[in-house]
Amino acid sequence: MKYFGTDGFRGEANVGLNVVHAYKVGRFLGWFYGKEHKARIVIGKDTRRSSYMFEDALASGLTASGADVYLLHVTPTPSVSYVVRTEQFDCGIMISASHNPYYDNGLKVINGNGQKLEAEIEEKIEEYIDSPEDTIPYATKEKIGCTVDYAIGRHRYIGYLMSLATRSFKNIRVGLDCANGSSYSVAKGVFDALGAKTYAIGMNPDGTNINENCGSTHIENLQKHVAEYNLDVGFAYDGDADRCLAVDDNGEVIDGDAILYLCGCYLKEKGELNNNTVVTTVMSNLGLYKAFDKAGISYEKTAVGDKYVNANMMKNGHSLGGEQSGHIIFSKYAATGDGVLTSLMLMEVMLEKKTKLSELRKELKIYPQLLKNVRVADKAAARQDEDVIAEVKKVEEALGADGRILLRESGTEPLIRVMVEADTQELCARYVDQVAAVLHRKGHVVEG
Description:
By secondary structure, this protein is an alpha/beta fold. Helices cover 39% and strands 21% of the residues.
């Protein structure tokens, strides 16, 4: 598709994604969901400066098409999913570019089931955006929509999160890195209310500092924070709080693979791991699969993107799935990845087992992994180049059963991602560089 990728419509604000795009997305959705009744659509946003601009543009388009708009204001993406799903909204829109820099932004459209919008509807939105004529009628008189302050929806989501905790967090020292993003309005309040001694950073958004040297993309800050204050555990979120990474009591990173392992084993023990299966993506570490084999847990692999994980879970009735990046889905509680919910589930594992995360993850040996992003002129041409394919095959043969290589296109940026897992970091670097060198030699690489 032209505008919508694996995670919505994303681009630099007023460059790749501008206010006219947002207005037309609103116009289409207000009309599409309002054919048989007055559409009710909820909007959330992160802390980027441009999020306020896009919120106004969307609201204008929606109300002009006759929809009523409910504003959650600054809130995590999963809260939009929760509110849509539980309060009978036609759809929801989250304004965020997730872990991207502040100058990027995006529109994530969530359907009435709280899941990402169907591709066929995204295609229709794209057709409307590019149409030279505005074929959608304007609402008039009493049919024009209104805009409603709906902060109560975010408060209900916070109450829901607190209701999921099965025990008090009293005397547990918890670090949080809220990335100067959406979670700053939710996470600390939840942990404080549950009794934790909470030490939070990334709590001062100014419109331009979201994800800047903080949050799950800069986990080293939380590692230092946990060590400095001698904390029991730490959790870091991304800009829109739909993903979570953790840091254990020794300051070691607990990534999405480790979270899937810890929660998978815990749910299996409780008899709550549906089909005895965890859904992963092709980016999950080889060590995770070996640990699952040892624990007697089955697994499935999808393409990269939490929407593919969720689709597999919905189709097959699985209860746990996610990505190495920290998008974790617990289908019993949510229809999408939820960073704060994930941190609460890890707290439950720790408290139920009365064991530190550093001990619980001992059976998981993560293979060294190196991921290199190579900026290219044409993703498809680069990935399908015969010499590139041949070099990847050569690396596969050299690694054998002791590692793997994965070459894939980014869903949101002009990048080819080259990932290698091997016994040592040196081997990873050697093989990644071999493939990157071929991309350079064949003229696919764009500098800068």
